[in-house]
Specification:
By secondary structure, the protein is α+β, with helices and mostly antiparallel strands. It has six helices and 23 strands.
């Protein structure tokens, strides 16, 4: 009986366990088959800022590093510009020629080609017998002046004491005046020749501050008076001498504007200062003197091209640009206008071509800033931008 009860209890326990396991199995089954809730969808990415067709985003530093050069365009087509080849030169007061003041040998050279020089500084030193003669004359004149002063003082004292006649005093006064004049002349000659105190050497000095642009002096060489030894130029005092044909020269007046084209594509504004009234005998051209607005990138002796714009031709509505500034994009001729964010490709209508320049009939207005060098790089940037979009 006891065994039966225990058996019943065991069977009841097994039944309960079966139910529990069964329920658990159901619960487990549900937990494995019920779809897991999908994670919340990631917020949609914000739409990319609208892309402006033909826009190139590029800051100043990147544009400069890429070699892109810009220019503010002015009114005037090809017919309104006079193209001229020019050379950078020193102004008349911006260059000094240093010559030997006397015959002699060069014993010391203090400055060489390219060195800076201050006004009054000795660039070289010479030994010269003429220097000794000049120094001797200076000493003699000084001694004669001292004697004349002494004589005049003595005659003045005798005249005041009524011992000598008035004509003796007057003669002493005349001699003193002559001695003073001679002393000044000899002092000036010695100063001009830069004769040393001992009379053995004389200095070759510069009249202006600047840099040595020519140095022909050789240590130990014997030179004659008047021989050119050095040239000194002040880089701040420069002008541009441009050559034009006679017919074009008649159209140009002082005050007309010009644009100077440098080798790297940069430009410098300039103003016409004067025009020579006669033609060069060999080239049959007139010289137009231009004053640049600033000296950046200009060096005496440098060759360049100038675009001179006579005021009478400024009324043209056309614009002339370097041919490189105009690029073809998808069959359209465009220029790249500078904007606050970079550049904007702008469609233009072109006209005549000549001298490496092209007329713009329509599309941009005077005053716009255009990429005149490196425009092909901006064209390539457009291709990249379209590929990315």
């Amino acid at each position: 009986m006891q065994i039966f009860e225990n058996k019943n209890r065991l069977m009841a326990a097994v039944a309960v366990g079966a139910l529990v396991l069964g329920g658990g199995g159901i619960l487990i089954g549900r937990s494995m088959t019920t779809p897991v809730a999908a994670p919340a969808a990631a917020p949609a990415e914000e739409e990319e800022e609208g892309h402006v067709e033909g826009q190139i985003l590029m800051d100043e530093a990147r544009a400069k590093g890429a070699g892109i050069v810009t220019e503010t365009i002015q009114a005037g087509g090809l017919g309104s510009e006079i193209l001229a080849q020019g050379i950078v030169a020193s102004t008349p007061e911006g260059e000094a020629v240093l010559t030997a003041r006397a015959d002699g040998a060069i014993t010391r050279i203090n400055r060489r080609l390219g060195d800076e020089v201050r006004a009054g500084e000795a660039v070289a030193v010479m030994e010269s017998r003429d220097a000794a003669a000049i120094a001797s004359e200076r000493s003699s004149a000084t001694a004669r002046l001292a004697l004349a002063r002494s004589t005049y003082a003595r005659e003045k004292k005798l005249f005041d004491a009524r011992i000598t006649a008035k004509q003796d005093l007057e003669a002493a006064a005349a001699a003193l005046a002559e001695a003073e004049s001679e002393a000044r002349r000899s002092q000036s000659a010695a100063a001009a020749a830069k004769v040393s105190g001992d009379g053995r050497t004389l200095a070759v000095t510069s009249l202006i501050s600047g840099r040595v642009t020519k140095a022909d002096a050789k240590l130990g060489s014997y030179v004659l008076a008047g021989t050119e030894l050095f040239r000194v130029s002040d880089p701040r005092r420069i002008q541009i001498n441009a050559s034009v044909l006679a017919a074009d020269a008649r159209r140009i007046k002082p005050g007309d504007t010009a644009v100077i084209e440098l080798l790297g594509g940069e430009t410098v504004n300039a103003v016409v200062r004067s025009a020579t009234p006669s033609l060069d005998a060999e080239s049959k051209t007139a010289t137009i003197v231009l004053v640049p607005d600033g000296i950046g990138g200009l060096t005496p002796g440098q060759g360049l091209r100038a675009r001179i714009k006579p005021r009478g031709a400024a009324g043209s509505s056309l614009i002339a640009l370097p041919e490189e500034a105009v690029q073809t994009v998808e069959g359209r001729e465009v220029v790249f206008v500078k904007t606050a964010k970079g550049f904007q490709a702008t469609t233009v209508v072109t006209g005549k071509r000549g001298g490496g320049r092209i007329e713009i009939v329509d599309g941009v207005n005077p005053g716009a800033v255009i990429a005149t060098k490196g425009a092909f790089l901006l064209k390539a940037e457009i291709g990249k931008g379209e590929a990315e979009h």
